[in-house]
Design a protein that fits this description.
The protein is of the alpha/beta class and 379 residues long. It has helices spanning 3-9, 50-62, 74-82, 99-109, 153-162, 175-178, 213-226, 232-242, 245-264, 283-289, 306-315, 345-350, 367-378; strands spanning 67-71, 90-94, 115-119, 135-141, 166-170, 188-192, 206-210, 269-273, 296-301, 320-321, 331-333, 358-361. The protein is globular, with a radius of gyration of 21 Å. Bound molecules: pyridoxal-5'-phosphate.
Length: 379
């Protein structure tokens, strides 16, 4: 089945009771048993719920994996992965990680004795320099947030395989429409489904997909034991959003490209970060592991003036100033004061998150209107 069919049919079957074409919302916590232990496969909704199960099959199908798991948020999904580890274990991760992931790692898991190495991964060979016998996980995010750096998943996978380390990839920015990490050798793919998968800025949710059965069993055990699941109503909304993922992504990519080029030619813009430019340091890797370049574009103004950047995001009308990304509507963000405020200024500037950096999540509106809005806001 091709990807554009999987978004609609992947892992789905019509409702067994009445043939409903859309999966019913099984708003129930528990399930009748005829005699103790005899039931239809469902006992309690933390463990299994039919609407969530339908969604988990969709996740698995989209990412070419065998097992999908849905969580109450993207961070809950990463948290489940971290619970595979124990005190003394080490993790190698990228130094321009999503701010919330960085906070989870450093503020929660460091105090449980897990050690993290945050390194520049634009040259993935560097990962191997940090591997030792305690290394249990390599955690990659590509494209990264908000600098749109590209990390070579295949290379990271070959290092992980060589040393028997798990490789997890946060695929939130690319989505399986553009990039399928399991096929490139990753062990775990993770999503903040809150973003492009849901696509309508109305559900907070996380996803994991794996191929290996043992790993899946360990993760299902954690999912059930820790309990950070999502509800049936949200599962339904997510399934509904996923049905249009391919058409939305196609338009996000088209509009993203147009906006990136517009900004690149603007006299008041110093630099535009978008992996589709040939001048992007990892453009070739982006081209080889992604089918297009996505709808995220970041830029820095000339003079790197904080006040000027604030003015631009205030002036934008169609691009709503808000956290998050990946919805049908365009959003703008100022990472230094918003999404990445929890990363110390010194750390953040090392990775390019300077005071005037603005991040755009380019939506699927008419591109002429988006360009007009940028024009009036930048002046
Ligand atoms: C938003 C986001 C997360 C966290 O997901 P939540 O659903 O907000 O918990 C993780 N990684 C990336 C890249 C994100 O954009």
């Amino acid at each position: 089945m091709k990807f554009n069919t999987k978004t609609i049919h992947g892992g789905q079957e019509h409702d067994k009771a009445y043939g409903a074409v859309m999966p019913p919302i099984y708003q129930t916590t528990t399930y009748a048993q005829t005699t103790p232990g005899e039931h239809k496969g469902f006992q309690y909704s933390r463990t299994l719920n039919p609407t969530r199960s339908a969604l988990e099959k969709s996740f698995a199908s989209l990412e070419k994996g065998d097992f999908g798991l849905a969580f109450g948020s993207g961070l809950a999904a990463i948290d489940a992965v971290m619970k595979l580890l124990k005190s003394g274990d080490e993790v190698i991760s990228t130094n321009d990680l999503y701010g919330g992931t960085y906070r989870l790692f450093t503020k929660i898991y460091e105090s449980f004795g897990v050690k993290f190495h945050f390194i520049g991964m634009d040259n993935a060979d560097r990962i191997e320099d940090y591997v030792n016998e305690n290394t249990k996980l390599i955690w990659v995010e590509t494209p990264t947030n908000p600098m749109l750096n590209i990390i070579d998943i295949k290379k990271a996978a070959s290092i992980a395989k060589k040393h028997s380390i798990l490789l997890g990839v946060d695929n939130t920015f690319a989505t399986p429409y553009l990039q399928q990490p399991l096929s490139l050798g990753a062990d775990i793919v993770m999503h903040s489904a809150t973003k492009y998968l849901g696509g309508h800025s109305d559900v907070v949710m996380g996803a994991l997909v794996v191929k290996d059965e043992d790993l899946a069993e360990r993760l299902y055990y954690i999912q059930n034991s820790s309990g950070a699941i999502c509800g049936p109503q949200d599962s339904f909304l997510m399934l509904r959003g996923i049905k249009t993922l391919h058409v939305r992504m196609q338009r996000h990519c088209e509009n993203g490209k147009a906006v990136a080029h517009y900004l690149n030619n603007h006299p008041k813009i110093e630099k535009v970060y978008w992996p589709g430019f040939e001048s992007h340091p990892n453009h070739d890797i982006a081209k080889s592991q992604m089918s297009d370049f996505g709808g995220m574009v970041s830029f820095v103004t000339k003079g790197n003036n904080y006040q000027q950047a604030i003015k631009i995001v205030e002036n934008l009308k169609l691009f709503t100033l808000a956290e998050s990304l990946g919805g049908v509507e365009s959003l703008s963000g100022h990472p230094a004061s918003m999404t990445h405020a929890s990363i110390p200024k010194e750390e953040r500037e090392k990775t390019g998150i300077v005071d005037s950096l603005i991040r755009l999540s380019v939506g699927i509106e008419d591109v002429d209107d988006l360009m007009e809005d940028l024009k009036q806001a930048i002046g």
